[in-house]
Amino acid sequence: MPTQEAGREAARLRWQCRRGMLELDLLLNRFLETGFPALDAAGRADFVRLLGYQDQIIHDWLMGQAVPADAAMRRLVGEIRAAMRNATAATGDAP
User: Fold this and answer.
1) Three-class SS of residue 1?
2) pLDDT tens by residue, 10-38
3) Per-residue confidence (pLDDT) for residue 8, from 0 to 100
4) Predicted model pTM
């Protein structure tokens, strides 16, 4: 059953998006809901790989304080940052 499997995968990813930093919880879960469905299979695999990194590393990447060495991870981080900017512009929230 593909639908059940997709539901389990989404639940697993939501759980993995829960981090020790509230900011990451919010950013990663928002991207999971809004940007993840548009990713291709490679992008989805990269997102799963991103979740394997330590919170501080992910935070630094998403806040633009560091840049991933891996090209695929740079591309994904750029997509997440763009989604953050678009969400901020749409809601009028401060960055």
Assistant:
1) coil
2) 889 999 999 889 999 999 999 999 999 99
3) 87
4) 0.84
Which ranges constitute the DSSP H helices of the chain? Answer: 2-17, 22-34, 41-50, 55-62, 71-91
Q: 48-55 long-range CB contacts below 8 Å, 24 or more apart?
A: 48/13, 48/16, 49/73, 50/76, 50/77, 51/13, 51/16, 51/17, 55/19, 55/20, 55/21, 55/24
If you search the block for the tokens 């993995």, which residue do you land on? 16
Amino acid at 85: R
Rounded Cα distance between 44 and 42, Å, is: 5
Burial class for 72, CB neighbours closer than 10 Å (0-12, 13-18, 19+): middle
| Location of structure tokens 């678009």 | 86
User: 3-state DSSP call for residue 36?
Assistant: helix
Closest among 10, 27, 7 to 19, alpha carbons compared = 27
6 or 81, which is more confident: 81
